[in-house]
Amino acid sequence: MEFGFEKGRYRVRLSRAPKDIAAAQDLRGRCFRGGASDADAFDARCDHLLIEDIASGDLLACLRLLQVAGADLQTTYSGARYDLAALAGLEGPFLELGRFCVLPDLRDPDILRLAWAGITRLVDARGVRFLIGCSSFSGTDWRPVRDALAVLAARHLLPKARSVGKRAPETLDYPALVGPVSAPERALPQMPPLLRSYLGMGGQVSDHAVIDRDLNTLHVFTLIETATIPEARARALRAVAG
Questions:
Q1: pTM of the entire structure?
Q2: If we measure between CA atoms, which residue out of 197, 217, 219, 192 comes closest to residue 208?
Q3: What distance, in Å, lies between the first and last C-alpha atoms of the chain?
């Protein structure tokens, strides 16, 4: 599929060659692994959304995308960590988002907006019904992000009919630990930007977190039904990609 657009100083496109995937792995390595390349078996199965500086050609941000049917959910990155059987009967397709990262020290909110604009274009073009992924908090200690987890537990859990089960060796039943929401003003700053976007679009999360020692993160499974994304939000993202 031919895909791409430009906005200001940025170009958004999908990977087209092995060198594009290698560049994404290098950027992910800088963000997630202290400079070591970040590569796994999923890379070859995925599209890679790239955001580049037009003038220099430098890669500034990337995101990994894997489209599957409901019957194949367990073959995804999320499916290796969560039992997704409760979702298998939903009419897809599903698009898994993962490994989103931005060049360290680049602070430009347009990057996240452009990423979502690119995702929106793909959702429209492919008829995607659900977005899924693992939303990661930095570190494996839940206490620094207690307020964020409390808000997730109180307001954003998947309903029982779509609740996902446990598969990972280490999990955290955070709703039982965090207690009631006591400082909602601290919750949003504790959340990763991508998760804040998910929730703003009606995203819902798993009732347990996975402790990922490899990446030094806590993450929760996240699901968005694209038909329920607020129309004003979707319209704004389409305009960015226009």
A1: 0.94
A2: 219
A3: 17
Distances 28 to 62, 102, 185 between C-alpha atoms, Å = 8, 8, 30
Residue from 37, 19, 17, 18 nearest 27 by CA: 37
The token pair that represents 70 in the structure block: 């409901």
Half-sphere exposure of 136 (CA within 13 A, CB side): 19
Q: What is the DSSP letter of 55?
A: T
- The span from the CA of 218 to the CA of 136, in Å, is 6
> In degrees rounded to 5, what are phi and psi of residue 214?
-65, -45
3-state secondary structure at position 208: strand
Q: What is the per-residue pLDDT across 179-230, written as a single tens digit (0 to 9) for each? A: 999 999 999 999 998 899 999 999 999 999 999 999 999 999 999 999 999 8
The Cα 62–Cα 103 span in angstroms is 9
